[in-house]
UniProtKB/TrEMBL annotation:
Keywords for the protein's UniProt record, in alphabetical order: Membrane, Transmembrane, Transmembrane helix
Comp. bias intervals (Acidic residues): 200-212
Membrane-crossing residue ranges in chain numbering: 12-34, 75-93, 98-117, 163-186
Superkingdom as given in the UniProt entry: Eukaryota
Originating species: Morchella conica CCBAS932
The protein, known as: MARVEL domain-containing protein
Sequence segments annotated as region (Disordered): 190-219
Keyword Transmembrane among UniProt keywords: yes
Composition bias type Basic and acidic residues, residue spans: 190-199
Length: 219
């Protein structure tokens, strides 16, 4: 049973840990800066002036497309903080040798689902204005050079980076799940089976010797 707790390709596992840490750190910085509405509305207005999407002036409250809401930014920030805290816990469990593959599968599958929703929302559509339909945010489909206001160019790059790093984090979680499953399905080395058989034989031999000694003592 102890073998199922072992990781295959430990060097790859540690490399993915480092990659995950770098991605989460970057996302915390980007999303923390964007919260609650540092540039979301500005990018929407910039797109509206270029005819890429609806204008903030024609939709308020519940009618605002989710991709342009502060709710999404707050969700992403909360998810980033939670993911980083879980990463710290993961590191502690790994050091204590409690971070086994089955735990990784459950944890990363949950995080992958949460970040999958985030990526889907970040690339969400805006059909509020029938004259300017937008299947996804304009900054994901176009160069940042097309901004109406040059002051929004850096914001455009930050929004692109947030989406790109979120996708890379999804890929990282997927790779960790695959590695965990491979570790769970890995067969025991032949030497381990042989050693186990020898231990059983040695145990039987010891029992027989004990019986013979006991029998001799009685006679």
């Amino acid at each position: 049973m102890a073998y199922i707790n072992r990781w295959k390709h430990v060097w790859l596992l540690r490399s993915l840990f480092v990659f995950e840490f770098l991605l989460l750190t970057a996302l915390l910085g980007l999303i923390g800066y964007a919260n609650p509405d540092t540039f979301t509305t500005k990018l929407r207005l910039d797109g509206a002036l270029n005819g890429f999407n609806s204008s903030p002036a024609i939709s308020t409250g519940a009618s605002t497309p989710y991709v342009w809401t502060t709710t999404l930014t707050k969700y992403n920030l909360s998810l980033s903080v939670a993911s980083f805290l879980l990463f710290v816990v993961q590191g502690a469990l790994y050091i204590l040798e409690f971070y086994v593959p089955v735990v990784a599968v459950v944890l990363k599958a949950a995080l992958m689902g949460a970040w999958g929703f985030s990526v889907h929302s970040q690339s969400g559509s805006d059909y509020t204005d029938a004259k300017h339909p937008s299947p996804s945010p304009w900054y994901l489909r176009k160069s940042c050079d097309v901004v109406y206001y040059q002051s929004n160019k850096n914001y455009c790059h930050e929004a692109k980076a947030t989406f790109g790093i979120s996708v890379m984090l999804l890929a990282c979680y997927g790779a960790l799940i695959v590695l965990a499953v491979v570790s769970l399905l890995a067969k025991k080395p032949p030497g381990m089976e042989k050693k186990k058989g020898q231990d059983v034989e040695d145990g039987n031999g010891s029992d027989n010797d004990s019986l013979e000694l006991d029998g001799g003592a009685r006679w």
